[in-house]
Design goal:
The chain contains 12 helices and 10 strands. The protein is an alpha/beta fold. The protein folds into 2 domains: about 170 residues, D-Maltodextrin-Binding Protein, domain 2, CATH 3.40.190.150; about 130 residues, D-Maltodextrin-Binding Protein, domain 2, CATH 3.40.190. Strands 1, 2, 3, 4, 5, 6, 7, 8, 9 and 10 form a 10-stranded mixed sheet that branches. α2 crosses α10. It is globular.
Length: about 325
């Protein structure tokens, strides 16, 4: 079906087909990131399905804004990028980089994850409440996570304001792997990270995963950790449930989006992608372009009113 769809789209192409030239897959984070591993795997499937080359380009910096800013200026249809909702939108709101992230077009999404907290096991933190109580005594001065304005930093600010998690300094890292290493090496005592990155080291005993900051456990939440609804009545799911999305430039046509969306869905069923995810601790769930667009709009229009934006700069 996809071949017939791709072959009949004009979209300004000289031969009437899309794509008629190679694609570029932007990763707005470094080559050692999980985002890069995802892009490398999916781009290979895209090459097989669309019969074009797909170059993976790491354009990192400014909490993902460098890569997504490059995508914003790119030719319609021929560049796509990894992205995360609501993380990228919140970073854009705090950074104000001079271009409109809301103009990007959703292609689809392939997974989602919960945000949680991890701790160095030497501190023997028994629960979130134990952490909050001990933080009140000044035991933990520094929290780790991705950059200022990123969703994980936003959650840290809210927990300080609403749950009495006291901290003074925020240690920024470029990717989840660095965060896990910082905690296991006691560079920082505690950090916010995605559940899929926390679980392997938790199972090895190298760090303590305190549990997801979502009201319900996910499909991969370990049995020996708390659920946030056991800790607090406050619901942070609009921040702590994050989707892994693919975006396209503003000038991408509806017809091109249709092809890219269907390619993403087909790629998820290929042996290469399935084998890759068998070795990951990710929650796979395809959703289409409309869902990505709708969720991005909701974040940009509704979430800022719920956050202390002046503290996220």
């Amino acid at each position: 079906m996809l071949g017939a769809l791709a072959g009949c789209i004009g979209g300004g192409e000289g031969d009437g087909d899309f794509p008629s030239q190679n694609l570029r897959w932007i990763v707005p984070y470094g080559p050692e990131s999980n985002s890069n591993a995802d892009a490398q795997t999916y781009s290979s499937a895209f090459e097989d399905i669309l019969d074009v080359s797909v170059e993976v380009a790491n354009i990192q910096g400014a909490g993902g804004m460098a890569g997504l800013g490059d995508l914003h200026q790119a030719e319609g249809g021929y560049s796509i990028s990894m992205g995360y909702t609501p993380s990228n939108q919140l970073t854009w709101l705090s950074e104000e980089p001079g271009w409109d992230i809301g103009e990007l077009r959703g292609v689809g999404r392939f997974s989602h994850y919960a945000v949680g907290m991890i701790a160095n096991p030497d501190y023997e933190i028994e629960s979130y409440q134990d952490l909050f109580d001990r933080s009140q005594d000044g035991e933990f001065d520094t929290m780790g996570g991705l950059g200022l304005g990123h969703t994980w930093h936003v959650i840290g600010v809210l927990l300080r304001e609403e749950e009495n998690l006291e901290w003074d300094s925020w240690a920024s890292y470029d990717n989840a792997g660095e965060i896990v290493q910082a905690v296991t090496g006691d560079e920082v005592p505690l950090a916010f990270v995605s559940e899929d990155n926390a679980i392997p080291s938790h199972e090895e005993g190298d760090l303590d995963y305190l549990g997801p900051l979502t009201t319900e456990p996910t499909e991969i939440t370990p049995d020996d950790v708390e659920t946030w609804s056991d800790v607090s009545d406050n619901d942070y799911d609009y921040l702590t449930s994050v989707t892994s999305d693919v975006f396209a430039p503003p000038e991408t046509t509806d017809e091109q989006i249709d092809v890219l969306e269907e390619t993403l869905e087909e790629a998820m069923e290929t042996d290469g992608v399935q084998n890759y995810h068998d070795d990951q601790v990710q929650i796979l769930a395809f959703d289409g372009a409309d869902a990505v667009d709708n969720d991005m709009e909701q974040v940009l229009t509704e979430v800022p009113d719920q956050l202390p934006m002046d503290e996220l700069q």
